[in-house]
# Entry
Amino acid sequence: MQPASANLPQHVAIIMDGNGRWAKQRGLPRIEGHRRGVETVRAIIDATRALGIRYLTLYAFSAENWQRPADEVSALMGLLEYFLRRETKVLIKNHVRLHTIGRIDELPAGPRKELQHAVAATRHFTDWNLVLALNYGSRTELADAACAYAAAVVAGREKPGESSWTTFSRYLYTAGLPDPDLLIRTSGETRLSNFLLMQCAYAEMVFSPVLWPDFTKAELAAAVEEYQRRERRYGLTAEQIKAGTAPTAAAINR
Ligand code: IPE
Ligand code: IPE
Ligand code: MG
# Structure
């Protein structure tokens, strides 16, 4: 079934979790789960476009994931490079702009070069947006943004003493991207694991028990339908929302 096209989330962010458990259940090495997870990524990018959702952010590798066994980390970096090498032409064909969030300069040269190529080759597209969170952590993002903001104040590009989310958020990795409307986490875990903590201030959250390699377009559509049944109030009362009072962006981004 296809969700109604009215009231679609503009931006869906996904914490793709459960690859390791998927493999373990089958007596396979964890990397097999990651390989299958990549196939799900391809399917979900297509499904998101088919539903009419313009922004998709995928949490692919966290700042904390470097602490995993070295062979798993290098296999994940290899898969990222393989994915980009295979998929960049598909992104171009489908007019999908690739963005990255996270400390990309700390990634190994192989995937980093593929990323730079893919970002440059798709930067003129405006219809569809894929955001890959790589070496991403919200706390690192906030610390990096604070440093960049402080440098801008010292250089005279920002006013000292101005306290405004609209201004400060331009220094986050996500500058220029809308906040996620719907956050999905697979695998039954109900935590955020340092993902987009600020940007999800008013996101609706859906936790799916399905392990990421088994996640399908039908599950994505079900999450979107769940989102469409929710009432987003942004601090207003239910009566105000029913009467048609719209929350103002200015109030949320003070
Ligand atoms: C998510 O699957 C992929 C990454 C974090 C890179 P996991 O590898 O975390 O799978 P589980 O949680 O161990 O099942
Ligand atoms: C979050 O999953 C990171 C990604 C999906 C890339 P983790 O599996 O690393 O999170 P925790 O450790 O269970 O919180
Ligand atoms: Mg996990």
About this structure: The CA atoms of residues 238 and 244 lie 10 Å apart. Residues 15-17, 59-62, 65, 189, 191, 193 surround IPE (ligand 2) (CB under 6 Å). The mean pLDDT is 97. The chain has nine helices and six strands.
